[in-house]
Design a protein that fits this description.
heterodimer, A: 110 residues, alpha+beta, Arc Repressor Mutant, subunit A, two-stranded antiparallel ribbon, 51% helix, elongated, B: 178 residues, mainly alpha, 75% helix, 0% strand
Chain lengths: 110, 178
C-alpha cells in the first residue's frame, strides 16, 4: 500500500533543497540538515531518500560538470517539483493543525 | 580543500558494493578533502553499504538470518536429537520462504544438503540403533547439511540474484494525495 505522507527526514530534505536553491546537491543538503536540524546525517541515507522522492516525482535531478576536487565526478543537483512543493505545504498544514490547541506547547519554545 | 586521498579500503568497498553514478562517491570525496576525518569517511561508507543492503536485499537478509538460525539449530540438533522438531519447523519456514522467492535455489539447497551428508550417512553404522533413533539420526544429519549449505548458498544468492534478480525487493512507492 502506498504511503500517504512524507517522513520527517524526507520533509527535512525537501526543505533543505528549497533553502539552498540552485546549488542543492548532496554535500550542502547534508550540511543544511546538520546545521539547522541539529542532527548528524549519513549521505547514503540522504541519497536513498532523494531516490525515493525522485521516483515519486517530488524532486528532479540534473548532473553538473565533473570537477577535480571530487575526483572527476559530477555533482547531482536536485530541485523540488510542483508536486513536491504541494507535499511540503500539505505536510506543513497537517503539522500546524496538529500543533494548535495543545496547552502544554503554549507560551514558549522549550 | 586538500589533496588527501580517502581510505583505500573504504573507497574500494564503496566502489564494489554500491551501485552509484559517481555523485555520491564524489560528495564523499569532496567532504573528505574539505577536512572531514577518515573515521567520518568510514562511517559514511558503512552507512551507505548498510542502507543499500537493506534497500535492495531485505528478503535476502532475512534469508541469511534464517539460514544462520537453522544452521545453529541443526548443529544443536546434530548432537541432541530431541531438538530435531523445532529445527524441522525452522527448516519448513525457511523452505516456504525460499519456495516463494526462488524455487530453483530451494531445489539446489536440498540436493546439496543431501549430497553433503550422504557419504557420512552411508558409511555410518546405524544397525545398533532403534528404528525411531535411526529416523531422528537421519533427520538431524540432513538438517545439519541444510544449515551448512544454506549459509554457503544464501550469500551466493545475494551476490548473484539479489540486486536485480528474483530476490530483489520492489522499490517503495510514495504517493502524496490529500
Amino acid at each position: 500500500m502506498a504511503r500517504q505522507h512524507l517522513t520527517d527526514f524526507e520533509l527535512m530534505i525537501l526543505l533543505a533543497i528549497l533553502r539552498i536553491g540552485e546549488d542543492a546537491y548532496g554535500v550542502p543538503i547534508a550540511r543544511e540538515i546538520e546545521q539547522t536540524g541539529n542532527r548528524s546525517v549519513l549521505l547514503g541515507a540522504i541519497y536513498a531518500a532523494l531516490d525515493r522522492l525522485e521516483a515519486n516525482d517530488l524532486v528532479t535531478s540534473t548532473y553538473g560538470d565533473p570537477t577535480p576536487e571530487r575526483g572527476g565526478r559530477a555533482k547531482r543537483f536536485f530541485k523540488v517539483t510542483g508536486k513536491g512543493l504541494k507535499a511540503v505545504r500539505d505536510t506543513q498544514r497537517a503539522f500546524t493543525a496538529l500543533w494548535s490547541g495543545i496547552p502544554q506547547l503554549k507560551g514558549g519554545t522549550t | 580543500m586538500t589533496s588527501r586521498t580517502p581510505p583505500k579500503l573504504a573507497a574500494a568497498l564503496l566502489r564494489h558494493l554500491t551501485p552509484d553514478d559517481g555523485s555520491l562517491v564524489g560528495d564523499l570525496e569532496e567532504g573528505f578533502k574539505s577536512g572531514k576525518t577518515s573515521l567520518w569517511y568510514w562511517s559514511q561508507v558503512l552507512g551507505i553499504v548498510l542502507t543499500n543492503c537493506v534497500q535492495t536485499h531485505t528478503c535476502a537478509i532475512s534469508l541469511v538470518l534464517a539460514a544462520v538460525v537453522v544452521s545453529v539449530g541443526s548443529t544443536v540438533g546434530w548432537w541432541q536429537t530431541r531438538f530435531a522438531v523445532p529445527v524441522l519447523l525452522g527448516m519448513a519456514i525457511t523452505s516456504w520462504k525460499l519456495w516463494r522467492l526462488h524455487r530453483t535455489s530451494l531445489v539446489i539447497l536440498y540436493v546439496a544438503s543431501v549430497a553433503l551428508v550422504s557419504p557420512y550417512w552411508l558409511s555410518a553404522d546405524t544397525r545398533s540403533m532403534t528404528a525411531a533413533n535411526q529416523v531422528f539420526w537421519t533427520i538431524t544429519r540432513i538438517l545439519g547439511g541444510y544449515g551448512v549449505v544454506g549459509v554457503l548458498l544464501v550469500p551466493f544468492l545475494i551476490l548473484r540474484l539479489g540486486r536485480s534478480g528474483p530476490l530483489s525487493d520492489p522499490p517503495l512507492h510514495i504517493s502524496v494525495t490529500r
